[in-house]
Amino acid sequence: MASSVSSRRLALLLLAATFATPAAWAHAHLTHQYPAANAAVTASPQALTLNFSEGIEPGFSGATITGPQQEAIKMRPAKRNEQDKTQLIIPLEQPLKSGAYTVDWHVVSVDGHKTKGKYTFSVK
Fold it and tell me: What are the boundaries of the signal sequence (predicted)?
């Protein structure tokens, strides 16, 4: 009898795990970016390029950059690459000076889930 109860609990646990797993993957996770996290680039990028694990909604997605003196860096509006709906491109208004920069990004995936994160890079 105890074996039957244990088997039922195990079956319910496996069933719950099966249905819970897709929800965890239903968010747009940052897969890679340029400039890369913790990278030291020799020249200022012209834009941030952020790539995600699934399609994103450009109207609800974007980023801010904070510079070496904690100043906000001016950027142009973010645009989704229409050939790759997982890629967000954010042009910079002017070249970045030498120093460390922090990128705070936020996106809404095509299924409506919100995700955000942060990374740093530097310009030599």
Answer: 1-26
